[in-house]
Amino acid sequence: MAMPEKHEHAVALQRCRSYNPQQVHLAISRQLELLGGADCFFQKGQRVLIKPNLIVPKGPDMPAQTHPEVIYAMAKIVKEAGAFPVVGDSPAWSTPAGCLKVLGIDQRLKELGVEIVNLNKPVRMKIARVSVGISRVALEADAIINLPKLKAHQQLGATFAFKNMYGCVAGLAGKEKAYWHFARGGEVESFCRMIIGIYQKLNPVLNIIDGIVAMEGQGPINGRPREVGYLVAGTDPTACERVCCDLVGFEPADLPLLVTAGKMGVGIPTDEPISIVGDTFTKPACSNFKPAIQTPLRFSFGHICKSIAKQCIILLKNLFCSRKGDA
Fold first, then answer.
1. Is residue 6 part of a domain?
2. What phi and psi, each to the nearest 5 degrees, are found at residue 287?
3. Hey, what's the torsion of the CAs at 149, 153, 156, 158, to 10 degrees?
4. How much is the pLDDT for 309?
5. Element (H or E) spanning 130, and its range?
6. What is the CATH number of the domain that holds 44?
7. What does the DSSP 8-state code read for residue 140?
8. Cα angle at 193 between 189 and 196, to 5 degrees?
9. In terms of residue numbers, what domain contains 298?
């Protein structure tokens, strides 16, 4: 049987004004069809890692994380195709299960038969001239679907597709991500080459960026909700990021990750137009989207210690609540 044709550089843009479950499911299903069909990305019997942006246990009203209806719809579509959906991340604070519980989706995922995993068990890999601990769980998946949140970012301008795969870094008891901010944050291009190298190593089959309600201002955690009203999907992360820029009125030349991707020759060339399938929009779709005031990319040693202490407090609190519930 001939395999469906995958549209390599096309971006499927779908207008979606709310997180109504039926609307989100229909929107993502349509995007997959526009890009060649679900069979282009995963097949029956495969173990498919769905990698949302889970960073801190905050509810869906604060768009710090991928919205639960986007996560659920993607898991359901994978399940309907006869594959085995797995939802995983390595949050800066708490655990994937803890973040999903606060999002109010953990039980629904379990009822659907979805496994929730922590992206741990690091495998040391040479990326951008350094040894990075990448989660064995992610490396052993048959396919990865990258499910980021559209956010302004106070260290990198914005995060759309590339940065979300940084959540697959799993070393140093979950704090290797913070370590690299400390060790490489002083050289922005060097840090970005590492981020892009991680993305290339894991090679997600698809990106679907949740821009229904985005985060403007001081993302990735402390910004404000801003309705944009679109889901952005494609296999080429550079193309997806450029479309996200157009949606919110950002210049690709102002975003270090996109500038570095251009230097590395990753994704669609800077001067090549992007083929958008699906819905159209007039640039920008969301006017006056507030950028983040930029802060240093490099974390201080004190910042890392504070992050570790915060994580310990959250995990101990989760353990206490879990034991109290079992009593």
1. no
2. -80, 150
3. 50
4. 79
5. strand 130-135
6. 3.40.50.11440
7. T
8. 135
9. 11-326
